[in-house]
Amino acid sequence: MVKEDKLQLLRDILLIDDREVAQAINRRIETITDTIERREKLSEKVDPIIEERLKLFVEEIPLSLGPVITDTLKKQIAESKDQVVEALYPIMGKMIKRYIQSEIELLSENMNRKVNDTFSVVAVKRKFRALFTGVKESDLMLSELDAPNVNEVFVIQKGSGILLGNLSHTATVDKDMISGMLTAIKSFVEDAFEGGGQDLEAINYELYSIHIQNFHTYYIAVVISGTYTKSFENKLENRLLKLSKSLSPRISTLTKEAIDGVLIEFFKKWRVQKK
Amino acid sequence: MEGTKKIVLLGQFGVGKTSLLRRFMTNVFEVDYKTTLGVQIKKKEITLPSGKKLSMIIWDLEGFSSVSNTRTSYLIGSDGFIYVFDLTRPVTYFNLREEIDYIEKNYPNVCLKIIGNKNDLKDSSSIEEYLANKNLKVHGFCSAKTGEGVEEIFRHIAFKIGSNE
Ligand SMILES: Nc1nc2c(ncn2[C@@H]2O[C@H](COP(=O)(O)OP(=O)(O)OP(=O)(O)O)[C@@H](O)[C@H]2O)c(=O)[nH]1
Ligand SMILES: [Mg+2]
């Protein structure tokens, strides 16, 4: 091939290619503008319609679907009451527990001190007893720990929480304040379970149980250490019923000293822990 | 029980109920605000003019927005109410009329005393005017911070209740 021809050929190829590329690009641009233009035109017409429909739809949802949704929810909640309660219960329970714990801290602090103080003495006694009786010390310990024991008795006016009478062998914690606190705790718990007419019957606190028995204008709280067994509870309940028979008719006229006297007489045969 | 009386401190959040009680019990003041949860109970014995002793069991309740939505079981069996408002916060005494009406209707036999606290922060004269216009009788003004009028309000209510015997 001559030089001239080669050059021509090259020019041809280049030119043709150029034109084809230009054409392809043009076509592309055309379709793009076309779609854009058409879309714009389209949406101009369509958008208001969609908007209107959407507005209507939003307005209609609460009316048409609302009741259906509410009904479904209501039904679901009603049908799964247990789950709802289950979900709420721990929260409520924790709230109450925390409240009781903080309120009773003072009481328990003192009681724990009492226990610690006496444990040393008790321990020494136990060692001697084990030595002389041949019974294993741990067995003695268990029997001691097990036996429920009346530590304190409070007769408290309902509502005001004012202490009417009390049997106890410690003077460190103010009994008037304890009876106020007990009453506050009691009404808090009773209010918390709005079902009405439910009385708090016992408070358990680590080593102690507080048995509560309600009468018309007053209630009796008994602080018990050791294992608070059902049979002991029964015994105690009967005992307190008996006590109330003698107390109730004259509760408003008796002085605190008189009621204290009645309590001493009544719990004479019971092991009230002497300090 | 004769010789023992239940007195309840009432009022909105942060008006200074606990501070007043602390001042009365131990004669101290704390700047820190620790809101009361539930109730705390204190006891103080005072001697009446007759020479008799009176044990005051004082219930310091958590604040409320209105006495009508506080726990009624904390209020029943009371001998006296000390209703505290905060001189620096009108919202704590704007509803006093309704509060008094509610208390007098529901607890007609309970001795009610109303007191404005924090008078170390605010002069009470404009408030006195406001209360007079509304025909509201308050016992007086006090400050848990300076101690002014604190002992007096507790003694006053104790004497009042003690003499009702
Ligand atoms: N300057 C001044 N501050 C006071 C006075 N009394 C109370 N305070 C402050 O006000 C804040 C609230 O006081 P509290 O005694 O906790 O109020 P409260 O009425 O018991 O509050 P709740 O238990 O939440 O209802 C605390 O920061 C106190 O230091 C007062 O007489 N003067
Ligand atoms: Mg408080």
TrEMBL record, chain A:
Q: What is the lineage of its organism?
A: Bacteria, Pseudomonadati, Bacteroidota, Flavobacteriia, Flavobacteriales
Q: Which protein are we looking at?
A: Cell envelope biogenesis protein OmpA
From TrEMBL, chain B:
For this UniProt record, the keywords arranged alphabetically read as follows: Nucleotide-binding
Q: Which SUPFAM superfamilies match?
A: P-loop containing nucleoside triphosphate hydrolases
The keyword Nucleotide-binding appears for this protein = yes
Q: Name one GO molecular function term.
A: GTP binding
Against PROSITE patterns, the record matches this protein to:
RAB
- Report the domain of life of the source organism: Bacteria
Record keywords: NAD included?
Answer: no
- One matching Pfam family, short form? Ras
Q: What is this protein called?
A: Small GTP-binding protein
Q: Which organism is it from?
A: Ulvibacter antarcticus
